[in-house]
UniProtKB/TrEMBL annotation:
Official protein name in the record: Putative lipoprotein
Lineage: Bacteria, Pseudomonadati, Pseudomonadota, Gammaproteobacteria, Enterobacterales
Key words of the record: Lipoprotein
Domain of life: Bacteria
Organism: Escherichia coli
Pfam families referenced in this protein's UniProt entry, alphabetically: DUF3829
Amino acid sequence: MKNIEEREGETFHYYSLAVMISAKQINNLISQNKFDAEAAMKKVSELETLVAQAKEADKSGMNFSFINSAGQYQLEAKKYVRRIRDKVPYSDWDKEQLQDANTSWMVDDSFPESIMRVQRNGR
């Protein structure tokens, strides 16, 4: 990151890489069975700032799809982290669906659902 910043400045290339690194860190954190929701929410807020900076750096508007997908991921991650932080319980049906990789994406504000929604919208 530092090399890109020194060579190019804080360009869209710089921010797009920062967004991807941040999203990967969030994924690694929230995909665990137990995680610190406050730390995750802080990371999600940082990602929100990076997405806004990437959008600002994209003067041509040619990277709309990337920015839109990153923004959608940030929103879905925020909803999931809020659910965990606020201890919103899953129903018995939701718990059953979460046990099966083929149905886990159907549970609102779950990690699998968040990933699936971003993948669908990113196409």
